C-alpha cells in the first residue's frame, strides 16, 4: 500500500497509534501484535469513543486496514485482511500499546476514498441521492462489503465454536484456540458519514450497526 495512502488516512482519522513509521509522517504512537504470523497486523490502531443511538463507549480500540480503493483488488484484499485479523484475535492474538495488552472493539476497512463516504473509487460516479437507504445509508459497494464482512464474521465464529467440540487441543494458525475468553471485536468499514461529512462512521456488525468514532487519545 502506498505510503501516501496511509498518510492521508492517518490525517483523516486524527489521533492514532501505528506500528510502522512511514515516509516523513510524524509518528502518532506505537502498537504491536503478539501471537500471530510475523508481519500480519493492521496498518493503524485508533483509540477513541464509539457512539450510537444515545449510547457512548469510551476508550475503544479500533484496528484499521488501509487500502487505496482504486480497483476491485484493493477492496478484496482489504476484505480478506480484516477477516484474517479477526480470526487471529479470536485465536489468541494480543494487541499491545506501550507494552500493555488492550482489547480490540472493532476491525475495519478504510480506503483513501473514505473521506468521500465510500470505499471504491468508481462509487464516486453514483448520485448520492441514489445510495442504499434504510437504517444504514451507504453507497452500493460499501454497503455490500460491510454486510458481507458481518456475515463472514458470524461464519468464522460458528466454525471456531464447532472446533471446541473436537477432543484434544485445537490449533488454528500460530495460535492455540480453546475457548472465547474475551469479547470478540466487531468488523465492518469506516467512511465519512453521508449525512454528517465531518464525522467518521463505522458500519459495524453490532446493533445499531452505525457507530461514530469520536475524539480519542494517541499513545507514544
Number of helices: 3
Total tally of structural domains: 1
Shape: globular
How many strands, what sense, and barrel or not for the largest sheet? 6 strands, mixed, barrel
Strand order of the largest sheet: 3-4-7-10-11-12
Number of strands: 12
Secondary-structure-derived class: alpha+beta
What does this structure look like?
The protein has 220 residues and is of the alpha+beta class. The protein has one domain. The protein contains 3 helices and 12 strands; from the N terminus they run H-E-E-E-E-H-E-E-E-H-E-E-E-E-E. It has helices at 3-13, 72-90, 140-164; strands at 17-18, 31-34, 44-52, 55-67, 94-97, 100-102, 104-111, 170-172, 175-177, 186-192, 200-204, 210-214. The chain has a 6-stranded mixed beta barrel. Strand 8 (170-172) and strand 9 (175-177) form a beta hairpin. The chain starts with a helix and ends in a 6-residue tail after the last strand. The model is unreliable at 15-27 (pLDDT under 50).
Amino acid at each position: 500500500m502506498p505510503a501516501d495512502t496511509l498518510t492521508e488516512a492517518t490525517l483523516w482519522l486524527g489521533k492514532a497509534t501505528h506500528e510502522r513509521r512511514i515516509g516523513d509522517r510524524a509518528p502518532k504512537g506505537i502498537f504491536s501484535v503478539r501471537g500471530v504470523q510475523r508481519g500480519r497486523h493492521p496498518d493503524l490502531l485508533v483509540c477513541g469513543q464509539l457512539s450510537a443511538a444515545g449510547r457512548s463507549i469510551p476508550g475503544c480500540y479500533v484496528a484499521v486496514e488501509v487500502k487505496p480503493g482504486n480497483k476491485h483488488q484493493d477492496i478484496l484484499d482489504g476484505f480478506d485482511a480484516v477477516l484474517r485479523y479477526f480470526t487471529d484475535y479470536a485465536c489468541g492474538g494480543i494487541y499491545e500499546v506501550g507494552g500493555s495488552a488492550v482489547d480490540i472493539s472493532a476491525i475495519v476497512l478504510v480506503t483513501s476514498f473514505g473521506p468521500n463516504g465510500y470505499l471504491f473509487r468508481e462509487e464516486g460516479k453514483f448520485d448520492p441521492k441514489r445510495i442504499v437507504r434504510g437504517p444504514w445509508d451507504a453507497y452500493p459497494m460499501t454497503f455490500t462489503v460491510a454486510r458481507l464482512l458481518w456475515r463472514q464474521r458470524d461464519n468464522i465464529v460458528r466454525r471456531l465454536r464447532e472446533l471446541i467440540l473436537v477432543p484434544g487441543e485445537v490449533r488454528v494458525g500460530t495460535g492455540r484456540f480453546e475457548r472465547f475468553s474475551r469479547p470478540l471485536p466487531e468488523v465492518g468499514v469506516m467512511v465519512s458519514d453521508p449525512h454528517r461529512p465531518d464525522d467518521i462512521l463505522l458500519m459495524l456488525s453490532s446493533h445499531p450497526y452505525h457507530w461514530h468514532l469520536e475524539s480519542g487519545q494517541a499513545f507514544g
